């Protein structure tokens, strides 16, 4: 097994006058010696993304119970925090490591949720939500960066990335059920927020146990002893014993990137050829889908109230579940379609769903038709998120990936923030026909 995992090529070393104790560890072959590893990592990262969904969408359920002013600012505060977290994500990842940063941010989400349950005014609530958003924005790049690096082969990685993105559905369903149990039974929004804080706290412990630190990060930092421990942890059956006991130099072989990039980490290479076109394209898509989806999801109960829909919490649960068809379809279609083509297809469907919402007319069937249309919108936009997360980290090298994902997260948050102020202005004007244009 050690011979399979470690390419100790003595002939090549002699030809190149390299040291005889130099080893190259290929992660793909090493992880093949760790059964169940990919499943554990995928599950832990799925639950981490679901925790982000719980904290992101929780405010939308509490807003109808608040009589405070400045609700638009309060709604935007979590996305402002995400924007700040996305800006800092690249630097924090390169400083602390993706796994350590993810665990810390999950704990910070839990603390912010518990603190939110005790606030006494709109500014305190906005501050609590800002801190929660800061943690979410900094957590997203490590979640997808670790998946890009640790999951093999490529087809499994695509399916796992799609599942991780789809876990947002589970988070939205979980927060909808918590709102139904706490708010519909008059337990109060403070109890509701205290319950949401338990979710990221449990997931932080799971990530600590199941997800290793990024080998490429430890290698770039020169932290050889920690790298040895992580690689031994990946292959507990002794596949790494040769390199671990040799005491010589070794390196972790990286998978070839689709596009070349600078070796020096930072944002500057993203603005240069050949990465600039793909970075701008991905950034535009991120802004557009975030403006549509977060704009509708945050103000969902307000929308149902305006159109006169009864059983709003039940409709919110149905809205969360409506993402499942889009999730399943994305995973199945990735087997036969290229991700970029599938992304274009889902974007077209999302545009058509937005148009269908804008054409709804008032009447006896208006509320039910509105609920059906927003559920269709959620299903196809879920497909956009799922496929987007399979392609947004692939063009970038491991050293650039944290900065690239952080920049794309910033585009997501800017779109989300713009949607909150636009939607708040539309709702305050009480113009229902114009309000149906929210996702556009």
UniProtKB/TrEMBL annotation:
SUPFAM superfamilies: MFS general substrate transporter
Keywords, in A-Z order: Membrane, Transmembrane, Transmembrane helix, Transport
UniProt membrane topology term: Multi-pass membrane protein
Localization, UniProt: Membrane
Example of a GO cellular component annotation carried by this entry: membrane
UniProt KW Transcription regulation keyword: no
InterPro entries reported in the protein's UniProt record: MFS, MFS_dom, MFS_trans_sf
Highest taxon listed in the record's lineage: Eukaryota
Residue ranges of every copy of the Major facilitator superfamily (MFS) profile domain listed in the record: 28-440
Signal peptide region: none
Protein's UniProt name: Major facilitator superfamily (MFS) profile domain-containing protein
């Amino acid at each position: 097994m050690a011979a399979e995992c470690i390419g100790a090529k003595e002939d090549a070393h002699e030809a190149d006058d390299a040291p005889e104790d130099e080893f190259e560890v290929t992660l793909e072959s090493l992880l093949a010696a760790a059964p169940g590893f990919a499943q554990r990592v995928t599950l832990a990262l799925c639950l981490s993304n679901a925790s982000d969904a719980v904290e992101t969408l929780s405010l939308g359920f509490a807003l109808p119970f608040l009589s405070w002013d400045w609700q638009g600012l309060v709604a935007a505060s979590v996305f402002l925090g995400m924007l700040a977290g996305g800006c800092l994500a690249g630097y924090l990842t390169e400083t602390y490591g993706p796994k350590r940063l993810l665990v810390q941010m999950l704990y910070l989400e839990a603390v912010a949720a518990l603190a939110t349950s005790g606030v006494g005014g709109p500014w305190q609530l906005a501050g609590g939500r800002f801190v929660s958003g800061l943690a979410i924005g900094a957590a997203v790049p490590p979640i997808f960066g670790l998946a890009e690096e640790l999951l093999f082969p490529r087809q499994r990685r695509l399916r796992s990335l799609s599942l991780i993105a789809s876990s947002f559905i589970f988070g939205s369903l979980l927060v909808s059920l918590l709102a139904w149990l706490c708010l519909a039974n008059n337990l109060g929004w403070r109890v509701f927020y205290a319950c949401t804080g338990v979710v990221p706290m449990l997931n932080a412990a799971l990530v600590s146990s199941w997800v290793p630190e990024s080998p490429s990060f430890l290698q770039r930092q020169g932290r050889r002893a920690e790298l040895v421990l992580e690689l031994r942890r990946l292959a507990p059956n002794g596949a790494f014993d040769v390199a671990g006991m040799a005491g010589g130099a070794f390196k972790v072989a990286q998978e070839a990137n689709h596009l070349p990039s600078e070796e020096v980490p930072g944002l500057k290479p993203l603005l240069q050829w050949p990465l600039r076109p793909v970075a701008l394209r991905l950034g535009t898509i991120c802004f557009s889908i975030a403006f549509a989806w977060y704009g509708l999801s945050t103000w969902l109960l307000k929308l149902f109230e305006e159109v006169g829909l009864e059983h709003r919490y039940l409709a919110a649960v149905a809205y969360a579940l409506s993402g499942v068809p889009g999730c399943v379809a994305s995973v199945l279609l990735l087997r036969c379609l290229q991700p970029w083509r599938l992304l274009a297809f889902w974007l077209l469907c999302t545009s058509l769903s937005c148009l269908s919402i804008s054409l709804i007319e008032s009447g006896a069937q208006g509320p039910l038709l509105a609920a059906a249309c927003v559920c269709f919108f959620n299903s196809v936009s879920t497909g956009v998120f799922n496929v987007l997360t399979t392609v947004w980290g692939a063009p970038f090298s491991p050293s650039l990936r944290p900065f690239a994902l952080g920049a794309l997260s910033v585009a997501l948050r800017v779109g989300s923030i713009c949607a909150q102020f636009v939607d708040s202005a539309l709702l305050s004007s009480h113009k229902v026909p114009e309000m149906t244009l929210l996702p556009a």
